[in-house]
Amino acid sequence: MTTLRLSAEPRPLGKSGISVFPIAWGMWRLAGEDIAEARARVEAALDAGITLLDTADIYGCDTPAGFGSAETLFGQILADAPELRQRMIIATKGGIRPGIPYNSGADYLAEAIDASLTRMGIDRVDLYQIHRRDFLTHPQEVAASLTRMVEAGKVRAIGVSNYAIHELDALQTFLDLPIVSTQPEFSALRTAPLHDGTLDQAMARDMAVLAWSPLGGGRLAKALHPAAVMLADQGERYGVDITAAALSWIMAHPARPIPIVGSQSAARIARSIDAFKVEWTRAEWYAVLEASMGERLP
Question: What Pfam families does the annotation carry (predicted)?
Answer without folding.
Answer: Aldo_ket_red (PF00248)
